[in-house]
Amino acid sequence: MGIGFRAAIIGDRKITGLSADVIAELVAEIGPLWDERHRVRLEARPRKRAAGAGAKHRLVFIDRPLATLVHLRHGATHDVLACWFDVDRSTITRAIGEVRPLLAERGCTIATGVRLRTLAEVIDHLGASGQTGIIDGTKRRVHRPAAGGKDRDKFISGKNKQNAVKAMVLTDATGRLLFCSPAQPASCADITHARQLGLVKHLADGPFVEILADAGHQGLGAQTGGRVRRPRRIPGGPRHTLWA
Q: Whole-structure pTM over 0.85, yes or no?
């Protein structure tokens, strides 16, 4: 990919959702981690050539997080990104598969020197700061697995009747992202996903934290001693929501 095209992606925040300074910080942080993991993979193989021999990467490292950010923000397919970056589709697939775990391990930076990586850390942060959390599930449509494929129907959302994956997102009261879970097939209910992630246990074992959730999490309130509250409507009243 040309330098001008790369600069255009970095310079337009609407494409990646990040400023140029944040992208530079991100590349500087995960670059050494990617290099180390790549070296470990190479050393683990039975080699017949010297290290460093053979074909070179057509997709330089900085383009790997850029392609991943565009994919995550806009849902661009690997085929489209392959055309953008002038490489094979398999190269994009491999790059995204390598970079996404590094981004997930990096966690969410909420203040200088404060970074949250796990749900337990988020609960502890909310409790220590006396803040209220908001939890909800978010879906992204995906292609339906091929006919006859294993677990083909697991990706069908019973609510939207679409093939999708979902993630559980937890924010503070201002909407600032604190945690995003790994994706699950959309057939998994929101409350089941929350239980699988250990939300009930973290709330029981951690500090007192109030979590606001929608009706899809009905039942968590009783399991968490009222720490999870859901919306309810007043019969015959105005069309606004109260938290019960």
A: no
